[in-house]
Amino acid sequence: MRIAMIGSGYVGLVSGACLADFGHEVTCIDSDAEKIAALKRGQIPIYEPGLDQLVKDNVAAARMFFSTDLPAAVGNSDVVFIAVGTPSRRGDGHADLSYVYAVAREVAVALKGFTVVATKSTVPLGTGDEVERIIREINPAADVAVVSNPEFLREGSAIGDFKKPDRIVIGLSDDRARAVMTEVYRPLYLNQAPLLFTARRSAELIKYAANAFLALKISFINEVADLCEVTGVDVQEVSRGIGLDNRIGAKFLHAGPGYGGSCFPKDSLALVKTAQDYGSPLRLVEATVAINDQRKRGMARKVIAACGGNVRGKTVAILGLTFKPNTDDMREAPSLSVIQALQDQGAVIRAYDPAGMTAARALLHDVHFSGNAYDAAAGAHALVIVTEWDAFRALDFRKLAATMQARTLVDLRNVYRPEDVASQGFAYFSIGRPVSAAEQKLAAQ
């Protein structure tokens, strides 16, 4: 099939590359001429494992193309995916749909023959109705079906998620569109991918509700972790115990510094605002948003306590800046709040991240960016693991001890076992696990 993917950001580029790999002819469209020129040169603007090779292979096979010419691509396509950003609108937290509606206006003029316009961007319920209204107002003669096809991609494992999905949600009411979308995903039949056809508004709400529920699980276990710390219980034992219940599941029950990224923060907030607009507030989601915001900055208090209650003039080394491993995405990353709060208390910050340094430099100020974990730790009074990159899972503690001012490790992702770190002579502070009196004394020295 001939497919136009409008928006060459994270969702558009990954989805376009995967669809091309299925054998479809995909043209990725973007208004940013420099981005398109870079993509044509083989330069991928985001870090996602395997994406560079996937794009290269499909460009070489003449299945994937890049262009700024939206009318030509739309007029020649069977399916047009809208995959532009929907960031939080400044001031009120609603999803900013200006990019989606701008694309809808351009698409309306360019349509030729029967075309399915599928919204892959994360949008509030009712957005598809407005997209269809815009298209029919501008081009009343258009033979078009507007459907909702939300993405469920996890950064760092997006290609696998696209090719082996838990479900493919498609919201529509047109039988012709159903046949077209079935053909788009037909190559996945060998993997028995479950296609869930729903009403369009249902599909829009499924995406938001799913993200909000996962965010709720994270905030829930983080609050349980706080209770564990003050009662001497190990939160990881609690997580395993409740996660073995198949009604609950083990995923997203890992205590940490709070969630971040491009989806959970903005989508949870947008769902809260939508529910309030309809007069049906979602109190649990409201609490989830508040808990997460408070938790990120609160992690700095844990670091300060580990440093004896004062970090003024002390050097704190931060390992991991991105909101999760295997991505360069800094959006709403917990590290931003932790670092700012530590700087507010007079700490000197050294930092390292395997992939996020470029993006971090634009967001963080007065931070010394290091070439590796050991350079960051040199002269530090505390080492803080904020993002659980694999590179931080087997640190050489003898090497660290030789250059650090104090042997203190604050593990905000529970990467290590307390007894293993303690055997190396380090005071170890983690999430939701008791700290021994000996470790507290060592940290205060």
Number of strands: 14
Per CATH, the class of the largest domain reads: Alpha Beta
Total helix count? 18
Q: For the CA atoms, what is the radius of gyration?
A: 24 Å
Kindly report the CATH topology of the largest domain: Rossmann fold
Cα separation of the termini: 67 Å
Mass-distribution shape? elongated
Mean pLDDT: 95
Poorly predicted runs: none
**Strand-residue fraction?**
5-15%
- Corresponding CATH architecture of the largest domain: 3-Layer(aba) Sandwich
Structural class: alpha/beta
The helix fraction, in percent, is: 40-55%
Reading side by side through the largest sheet, how are the strands ordered?
Answer: 3-2-1-4-5-6
CATH superfamily of the largest domain: NAD(P)-binding Rossmann-like Domain
